[in-house]
Amino acid sequence: HDRLYVGAADGRVYAFEPNPDTRRVLVDHVRRNRMGGRITVRPDAVSNEPGEATLHVSALEGTNRLGAPNPDVHAPHKTVTVPVTTIDNVVGADALDPDWLFLDIEGFEVQALRGATNTIRRGRVNVVVEFHPALWESAGTSRAEFQALLGALGLSPVPLTGQRDVWGEPGVVHLARTQAPAAS
Predict the structure, then answer these.
(1) CA distance from start to end of the chain
(2) Which of 95, 100, 125, 153 has its CA 20 to 30 Å from the CA of residue 174?
(3) Which one-letter DSSP state was computed for residue 182?
(4) Residues 67 and 138: beta-carbon distance below 8 Å
(5) DSSP state, 69?
(6) What are phi and psi of 45, to 5 degrees?
(7) CA-CA distance, 92 to 84, in Å (whole number)?
(8) pLDDT in tens, 41-86
(9) What is the 3-state secondary structure (H, E, C) of the chain?
(10) Which stretch of 6-10, 21-25, 36-40, 107-111 has the lowest confidence by average pLDDT?
(11) What's the gap between Cα 90 and its chain centre?
């Protein structure tokens, strides 16, 4: 699931949910809780470039992903073509100044962070990412590439869910600012 959470108690939430089945449930929950004025649900996946992509969907499972099915999930899946955007494009188009960015996108963390580079470089947004190290290779990236990107952005991973090896174990990670981002 691609989600971008923006704002505080009086803020707004932008939720990116490319799985049509999951999005219908999310939109229903937003409506039932009368949060439509604060929560915007978008049908896009997030990545490093806008366009379209194939999403591999397993019903309402939280393991849907771009590119290829999750190798750890053996449930039947279908493919759907979904729109893709970048966080920087949405932030720029809607003149947002997000406080928080939360990503859980099944191995495509590097691509989404590349598409959020300008937002992150402004130095205000707090970033929390669910790391999926076992899925990085199938997403076309590597640990070394992820480490280099974080270094360029002046960020360092801090495990939030007890991982001893943040680069080798799945879990939720805060990307803490350690320095000013490198010049682009």
Answers:
(1) 29
(2) 95
(3) P
(4) yes
(5) -
(6) -90, 160
(7) 15
(8) 999 999 999 999 998 887 666 677 887 777 777 677 788 999 999 9
(9) CEEECCCCCCCCEEEECCCHHHHHHHHHHHHHCCCCCCEEEECCEECCCCEEEEEEECCCCCCCEECCCCCCCCCCCEEEEEEEECHHHHHHHCCCCCCEEEECCCCCHHHHHHCCHHHHHCCCCEEEEEECHHHCHHHCCCHHHHHHHHHHHCEEEEECCCCCCCCCCCEEEEEEECCCCCCC
(10) 6-10
(11) 13
What letter represents residue 145's amino acid?
Answer: E
The C-alpha atoms of residue 108 and residue 130 are separated, in whole angstroms, by 10
124 CB-contact burial (10 Å; exposed 0-12 / middle 13-18 / buried 19+): exposed
Contacts of 95 (CB under 8 A, 6+ apart): none
C-alpha 162, offset from chain centre: 21
Bridge pairing between strands 51-57 and 171-177: unpaired
The answer to whether 167 touches 147, Cβ cutoff 8 Å, is yes
134, 66 contact by CB (below 8 A): no
d(CA 111, CA 169): 19
Write out the two tokens for 54.
């194939």
Q: What is the pTM of this model?
A: 0.87
The residue written with tokens 């952005």 in the block is 153
Among 151, 99, 152, 108, smallest CA distance to 129 is for 108
